[in-house]
Amino acid sequence: MTSHTDARLDALAVPASPARPRAPRAWRAALLPLLLPALALCAWQLAASQGWVAPQILPAPERVWTSFVELLGNGDIAANFAVSLHRIGLGFLLGAALGLATGIALGVSDTVRDYLDPLLRALFAIPSIGWIPILILVFGIAETLKILIIAKAVFVPIVINTAQGIRDIPKAHLETARVLRLRPWTRFIRVIAPASLGPVFSGVRLGLGHAFIALIVVEMLAATEGIGYMMVWGRKQFQTDLVIVGMIVVGLAGFALDRALLAVEQALNRKVPSHG
Protein backbone atom coordinates (compact mmCIF):
# COMPACT_ATOMS: atom_id res chain seq x y z
CA MET A 1 0.00 0.00 0.00
CA THR A 2 1.49 3.32 -1.03
CA SER A 3 2.00 6.33 1.17
CA HIS A 4 -0.57 8.20 -0.93
CA THR A 5 -3.17 5.55 -0.20
CA ASP A 6 -2.30 5.64 3.52
CA ALA A 7 -2.85 9.38 3.57
CA ARG A 8 -6.26 8.97 2.01
CA LEU A 9 -7.20 6.27 4.53
CA ASP A 10 -6.01 8.50 7.39
CA ALA A 11 -8.15 11.30 6.06
CA LEU A 12 -11.16 9.04 5.94
CA ALA A 13 -10.43 7.83 9.48
CA VAL A 14 -10.61 11.35 10.87
CA PRO A 15 -13.84 11.56 12.84
CA ALA A 16 -16.39 13.79 11.25
CA SER A 17 -17.24 17.03 12.92
CA PRO A 18 -20.26 16.74 15.15
CA ALA A 19 -23.55 17.39 13.38
CA ARG A 20 -25.17 20.70 14.03
CA PRO A 21 -27.94 20.32 16.57
CA ARG A 22 -31.31 20.30 14.92
CA ALA A 23 -34.38 21.99 16.26
CA PRO A 24 -36.09 19.87 18.89
CA ARG A 25 -38.61 17.59 17.31
CA ALA A 26 -41.22 18.47 19.92
CA TRP A 27 -41.24 22.10 18.82
CA ARG A 28 -41.31 21.09 15.18
CA ALA A 29 -44.23 18.73 15.75
CA ALA A 30 -46.11 21.39 17.71
CA LEU A 31 -45.56 24.26 15.30
CA LEU A 32 -45.92 22.63 11.88
CA PRO A 33 -49.67 21.82 12.27
CA LEU A 34 -50.28 25.49 13.08
CA LEU A 35 -48.70 26.74 9.86
CA LEU A 36 -51.63 26.22 7.50
CA PRO A 37 -54.26 27.54 9.97
CA ALA A 38 -52.11 30.63 10.48
CA LEU A 39 -51.87 31.19 6.73
CA ALA A 40 -55.62 30.66 6.37
CA LEU A 41 -56.27 33.17 9.15
CA CYS A 42 -54.03 35.74 7.45
CA ALA A 43 -55.81 35.20 4.12
CA TRP A 44 -59.18 35.51 5.87
CA GLN A 45 -58.17 38.77 7.53
CA LEU A 46 -56.81 40.11 4.26
CA ALA A 47 -60.01 39.23 2.38
CA ALA A 48 -62.15 40.85 5.06
CA SER A 49 -60.06 44.02 5.34
CA GLN A 50 -59.93 44.49 1.56
CA GLY A 51 -63.65 43.87 1.14
CA TRP A 52 -63.14 41.03 -1.31
CA VAL A 53 -66.10 39.17 0.21
CA ALA A 54 -69.25 40.73 1.64
CA PRO A 55 -69.20 40.76 5.47
CA GLN A 56 -72.62 39.05 5.49
CA ILE A 57 -70.93 36.06 3.84
CA LEU A 58 -67.49 36.18 5.42
CA PRO A 59 -67.28 38.34 8.57
CA ALA A 60 -63.90 39.51 9.79
CA PRO A 61 -62.02 37.31 12.28
CA GLU A 62 -62.45 39.88 15.05
CA ARG A 63 -66.24 39.81 14.54
CA VAL A 64 -66.24 36.01 14.88
CA TRP A 65 -64.07 36.26 17.99
CA THR A 66 -66.43 38.84 19.51
CA SER A 67 -69.42 36.56 18.85
CA PHE A 68 -67.55 33.61 20.32
CA VAL A 69 -66.79 35.52 23.51
CA GLU A 70 -70.40 36.73 23.76
CA LEU A 71 -71.85 33.25 23.26
CA LEU A 72 -69.37 31.85 25.72
CA GLY A 73 -70.26 34.50 28.27
CA ASN A 74 -74.03 34.12 28.08
CA GLY A 75 -73.81 30.33 28.16
CA ASP A 76 -75.24 29.63 24.70
CA ILE A 77 -72.21 27.68 23.55
CA ALA A 78 -72.07 25.61 26.72
CA ALA A 79 -75.81 24.81 26.62
CA ASN A 80 -75.83 23.83 22.95
CA PHE A 81 -72.56 21.95 23.18
CA ALA A 82 -73.83 19.94 26.16
CA VAL A 83 -76.86 18.85 24.14
CA SER A 84 -74.71 17.91 21.14
CA LEU A 85 -72.17 16.12 23.31
CA HIS A 86 -74.91 14.05 24.93
CA ARG A 87 -76.25 13.02 21.53
CA ILE A 88 -72.88 12.18 20.09
CA GLY A 89 -71.89 10.27 23.22
CA LEU A 90 -74.94 8.02 23.12
CA GLY A 91 -74.81 7.59 19.35
CA PHE A 92 -71.10 6.86 19.36
CA LEU A 93 -71.33 4.29 22.16
CA LEU A 94 -74.24 2.52 20.47
CA GLY A 95 -72.63 2.53 17.04
CA ALA A 96 -69.22 1.50 18.37
CA ALA A 97 -70.62 -1.40 20.41
CA LEU A 98 -72.66 -2.75 17.49
CA GLY A 99 -69.84 -2.08 15.05
CA LEU A 100 -67.23 -3.92 17.11
CA ALA A 101 -69.53 -6.90 17.69
CA THR A 102 -70.46 -7.14 14.02
CA GLY A 103 -66.90 -6.57 12.82
CA ILE A 104 -65.54 -9.27 15.10
CA ALA A 105 -68.22 -11.72 13.94
CA LEU A 106 -67.42 -10.96 10.29
CA GLY A 107 -63.70 -11.28 10.94
CA VAL A 108 -63.65 -14.58 12.80
CA SER A 109 -66.50 -16.45 11.11
CA ASP A 110 -66.70 -17.28 7.42
CA THR A 111 -70.32 -18.32 7.90
CA VAL A 112 -71.35 -14.96 9.35
CA ARG A 113 -69.45 -13.21 6.59
CA ASP A 114 -71.24 -15.26 3.91
CA TYR A 115 -74.63 -14.37 5.38
CA LEU A 116 -74.14 -10.72 6.30
CA ASP A 117 -71.38 -9.22 4.18
CA PRO A 118 -73.41 -8.62 0.97
CA LEU A 119 -76.34 -7.18 2.92
CA LEU A 120 -74.14 -4.90 4.98
CA ARG A 121 -72.24 -3.70 1.91
CA ALA A 122 -75.56 -2.70 0.34
CA LEU A 123 -76.69 -0.92 3.51
CA PHE A 124 -73.35 0.82 3.86
CA ALA A 125 -73.86 2.39 0.43
CA ILE A 126 -76.86 4.33 1.77
CA PRO A 127 -75.59 7.54 3.38
CA SER A 128 -76.76 8.39 6.86
CA ILE A 129 -78.74 11.36 5.58
CA GLY A 130 -80.68 8.98 3.35
CA TRP A 131 -82.13 7.27 6.42
CA ILE A 132 -83.53 10.47 7.90
CA PRO A 133 -86.89 10.62 6.04
CA ILE A 134 -87.97 7.12 6.97
CA LEU A 135 -86.66 7.37 10.51
CA ILE A 136 -88.58 10.62 10.98
CA LEU A 137 -91.75 8.76 10.00
CA VAL A 138 -91.00 6.05 12.56
CA PHE A 139 -89.50 8.02 15.46
CA GLY A 140 -90.47 11.61 14.72
CA ILE A 141 -87.79 14.21 15.44
CA ALA A 142 -87.19 12.96 18.97
CA GLU A 143 -83.76 12.16 20.37
CA THR A 144 -84.02 8.58 19.13
CA LEU A 145 -83.75 9.76 15.53
CA LYS A 146 -80.58 11.73 16.16
CA ILE A 147 -78.90 8.96 18.15
CA LEU A 148 -79.72 6.33 15.52
CA ILE A 149 -78.36 8.48 12.68
CA ILE A 150 -75.13 9.09 14.60
CA ALA A 151 -74.87 5.40 15.53
CA LYS A 152 -75.28 4.37 11.90
CA ALA A 153 -72.53 6.79 10.86
CA VAL A 154 -70.19 5.32 13.50
CA PHE A 155 -71.17 1.72 12.77
CA VAL A 156 -69.95 1.54 9.17
CA PRO A 157 -66.22 2.39 9.48
CA ILE A 158 -65.85 0.38 12.67
CA VAL A 159 -67.35 -2.74 11.10
CA ILE A 160 -65.19 -2.47 7.99
CA ASN A 161 -61.92 -1.80 9.83
CA THR A 162 -62.52 -4.37 12.55
CA ALA A 163 -63.42 -7.17 10.13
CA GLN A 164 -60.54 -6.35 7.80
CA GLY A 165 -58.08 -6.03 10.68
CA ILE A 166 -58.95 -9.49 11.95
CA ARG A 167 -58.81 -11.04 8.49
CA ASP A 168 -55.36 -9.51 7.93
CA ILE A 169 -53.86 -11.24 10.97
CA PRO A 170 -50.96 -13.43 9.74
CA LYS A 171 -51.97 -17.04 9.39
CA ALA A 172 -48.88 -18.09 11.37
CA HIS A 173 -50.30 -16.40 14.50
CA LEU A 174 -53.62 -18.21 14.20
CA GLU A 175 -51.88 -21.48 13.41
CA THR A 176 -49.70 -21.11 16.50
CA ALA A 177 -52.79 -20.55 18.62
CA ARG A 178 -54.37 -23.65 17.11
CA VAL A 179 -51.28 -25.76 17.78
CA LEU A 180 -51.20 -24.54 21.39
CA ARG A 181 -54.89 -25.46 21.64
CA LEU A 182 -55.87 -22.12 23.07
CA ARG A 183 -59.48 -21.83 24.00
CA PRO A 184 -61.54 -19.43 21.81
CA TRP A 185 -61.68 -16.69 24.46
CA THR A 186 -57.96 -16.99 25.21
CA ARG A 187 -57.15 -16.96 21.49
CA PHE A 188 -59.21 -13.83 21.07
CA ILE A 189 -57.64 -12.00 24.02
CA ARG A 190 -54.05 -13.15 23.42
CA VAL A 191 -53.86 -13.19 19.62
CA ILE A 192 -56.75 -11.62 17.73
CA ALA A 193 -57.35 -8.51 19.83
CA PRO A 194 -53.70 -7.38 20.07
CA ALA A 195 -52.95 -8.13 16.42
CA SER A 196 -55.97 -6.16 15.16
CA LEU A 197 -55.74 -3.27 17.60
CA GLY A 198 -54.39 -0.75 15.08
CA PRO A 199 -57.07 -1.23 12.39
CA VAL A 200 -59.80 -1.35 15.02
CA PHE A 201 -58.78 1.98 16.51
CA SER A 202 -58.44 3.46 13.04
CA GLY A 203 -62.07 2.53 12.50
CA VAL A 204 -63.08 3.96 15.87
CA ARG A 205 -61.36 7.27 15.18
CA LEU A 206 -62.85 7.38 11.69
CA GLY A 207 -66.24 6.61 13.18
CA LEU A 208 -65.87 9.55 15.55
CA GLY A 209 -65.32 11.87 12.61
CA HIS A 210 -68.39 10.47 10.87
CA ALA A 211 -70.35 10.95 14.09
CA PHE A 212 -69.68 14.69 14.09
CA ILE A 213 -70.75 14.95 10.45
CA ALA A 214 -73.99 13.08 11.19
CA LEU A 215 -74.57 15.17 14.32
CA ILE A 216 -74.37 18.48 12.48
CA VAL A 217 -76.54 17.23 9.60
CA VAL A 218 -79.29 15.84 11.81
CA GLU A 219 -79.27 18.87 14.09
CA MET A 220 -79.59 21.15 11.08
CA LEU A 221 -82.55 19.20 9.76
CA ALA A 222 -84.46 18.05 12.83
CA ALA A 223 -83.49 19.79 16.05
CA THR A 224 -84.32 22.83 18.13
CA GLU A 225 -81.09 22.91 20.12
CA GLY A 226 -77.48 21.87 19.74
CA ILE A 227 -74.45 23.23 17.89
CA GLY A 228 -75.87 22.23 14.50
CA TYR A 229 -79.13 24.03 15.26
CA MET A 230 -77.18 27.10 16.39
CA MET A 231 -75.35 27.10 13.05
CA VAL A 232 -78.50 26.81 10.95
CA TRP A 233 -80.19 29.49 13.07
CA GLY A 234 -77.25 31.80 12.40
CA ARG A 235 -77.54 31.12 8.67
CA LYS A 236 -81.25 31.96 8.69
CA GLN A 237 -80.49 35.21 10.51
CA PHE A 238 -77.63 36.01 8.08
CA GLN A 239 -75.23 35.87 11.02
CA THR A 240 -72.49 33.80 9.48
CA ASP A 241 -70.27 34.63 12.44
CA LEU A 242 -72.46 32.22 14.45
CA VAL A 243 -72.02 29.57 11.77
CA ILE A 244 -68.25 29.96 11.89
CA VAL A 245 -68.28 29.86 15.70
CA GLY A 246 -70.18 26.56 15.50
CA MET A 247 -67.68 25.20 13.00
CA ILE A 248 -64.79 26.14 15.28
CA VAL A 249 -66.43 24.54 18.32
CA VAL A 250 -67.13 21.31 16.43
CA GLY A 251 -63.61 21.23 15.02
CA LEU A 252 -61.97 21.74 18.39
CA ALA A 253 -64.20 19.15 20.06
CA GLY A 254 -63.53 16.61 17.32
CA PHE A 255 -59.78 17.21 17.52
CA ALA A 256 -59.77 16.85 21.32
CA LEU A 257 -61.76 13.60 21.24
CA ASP A 258 -59.56 12.20 18.48
CA ARG A 259 -56.43 12.96 20.53
CA ALA A 260 -58.06 11.24 23.50
CA LEU A 261 -58.74 8.11 21.43
CA LEU A 262 -55.17 8.20 20.09
CA ALA A 263 -53.86 8.36 23.67
CA VAL A 264 -55.99 5.35 24.62
CA GLU A 265 -54.70 3.44 21.58
CA GLN A 266 -51.08 4.23 22.43
CA ALA A 267 -51.62 3.19 26.05
CA LEU A 268 -53.11 -0.12 24.94
CA ASN A 269 -50.27 -0.68 22.44
CA ARG A 270 -47.77 -0.34 25.29
CA LYS A 271 -49.61 -2.97 27.32
CA VAL A 272 -50.23 -5.64 24.67
CA PRO A 273 -47.43 -7.92 23.47
CA SER A 274 -45.82 -7.21 20.12
CA HIS A 275 -46.89 -9.33 17.15
CA GLY A 276 -44.34 -8.05 14.69
* SS-derived structural category: mainly alpha
* Share of residues in helices: over 70%
**What is the CA–CA distance across the termini?**
47 Å
Task: Determine the number of helices (DSSP H or I, runs of at least 4 residues).
Answer: 12
Mean pLDDT: 87
| Number of beta strands | 0
Order of helices and strands: HHHHHHHHHHHH
**What's the alpha carbon Rg, rounded to whole Å?**
26 Å
Largest sheet: none
The shape, in one word, is globular
Our estimate of the beta-strand percent is under 5%
* Spans of at least 5 consecutive residues with low confidence: none
Characterise this structure.
It is a single chain. Helices cover 81% and strands 0% of the residues. With 276 residues, the chain is mainly alpha-helical. The model has no long low-confidence stretch (mean pLDDT 87).
Characteristic terms for this protein:
mainly alpha; 276 residues; 12 helices; 81% helix; 0% strand
Write the layout of secondary structure elements.
Blueprint: H1 3-13, H2 25-50, H3 61-74, H4 76-108, H5 110-124, H6 128-139, H7 143-167, H8 171-179, H9 184-195, H10 197-221, H11 227-236, H12 240-271
Structure summarized in a few sentences:
With 276 residues, the chain is an all-alpha fold.
